[in-house]
Amino acid sequence: MAITLPELPYAKNALEPHISQETLEFHYGKHHATYVDKLGPLIEGTDLQDADLETIVRNSSGGVFNNAAQVWNHTFYWNCLSPNGGGEATGAVAEKINAAFGSFGDFKEEFTASAVGNFGSGWTWLVQKPDGSVAIVNTSNAETPLTGNDQPLLTVDVWEHAYYIDYRNARPKYMDAFWALLNWDFVNANLA
């Protein structure tokens, strides 16, 4: 199975003014595309060359894992955003958030603090634990909950290339933009 760059679920300018077309041209068009371009030759001729992306992520290490996980993480992240997103959580995920954090406001505050404080490059996730509860998890570099027992529900990319063009080093301002775009329909679909 050839690994290809998936289409964005919206136009490159659709997330403005929160995330600029220029950021998407670099983040999606350069960074995400480079992970896809590097992964193909790395799996060619191996037992993973015909595997789907999730199988590659779960069964690889080193450069193969780094590129495959970044392809998967970025694809998941793009779907966490929507030009029609934002607002408070809805549906079943709202109930789980309220049960775990007390209120949406408390969850948003804790998730934002976790993302802002996630040292270096990485990702901040809302995951569903095997017992059905939800939790906030930080990962570094290409690490992803996909390799463990947690079900990823939503993520925010906190590598600097996700926000530097628009917000320079102001990760908290980027997090404000993230909340304005969050696609709760996608998050709820991941809970199903």
Automatic annotation (TrEMBL):
For this protein, the record's SUPFAM superfamilies field holds:
Fe,Mn superoxide dismutase (SOD), C-terminal domain, Fe,Mn superoxide dismutase (SOD), N-terminal domain
- Keyword flag Metal-binding: yes
Q: Give the reactions, separated by semicolons, that this protein catalyses.
A: 2 superoxide + 2 H(+) = H2O2 + O2
The cellular component terms of Gene Ontology attached to this UniProt record, alphabetical and capped at eight, are:
cytoplasm
The UniProt transmembrane annotation reads none
The answer to whether the entry has keyword Phosphoprotein is no
Quote the InterPro entries the UniProt record gives.
Mn/Fe_SOD (IPR001189), Mn/Fe_SOD_BS (IPR019833), Mn/Fe_SOD_C (IPR019832), Mn/Fe_SOD_N (IPR019831), Mn/Fe_SOD_N_sf (IPR036324), SOD_C_sf (IPR036314)
- Xref: PROSITE patterns: SOD_MN
Residue limits of the Manganese/iron superoxide dismutase C-terminal domain?
A: 90-189
Ordered alphabetically, the record's keywords are:
Iron, Metal-binding, Oxidoreductase
One GO molecular-function entry: superoxide dismutase activity
Checking Gene3D superfamilies in the record gives: Fe,Mn superoxide dismutase (SOD) domain, Iron/manganese superoxide dismutase, C-terminal domain
Query: Which positions are annotated as binding Mn(2+)?
Result: 27, 74, 157, 161
- Role description: Destroys radicals which are normally produced within the cells and which are toxic to biological systems.
What family does the database annotate?
Answer: Belongs to the iron/manganese superoxide dismutase family.
UniProt cross-references to PANTHER family, sorted A to Z: SUPEROXIDE DISMUTASE, SUPEROXIDE DISMUTASE [FE] 2, CHLOROPLASTIC
Q: What is this protein called?
A: Superoxide dismutase
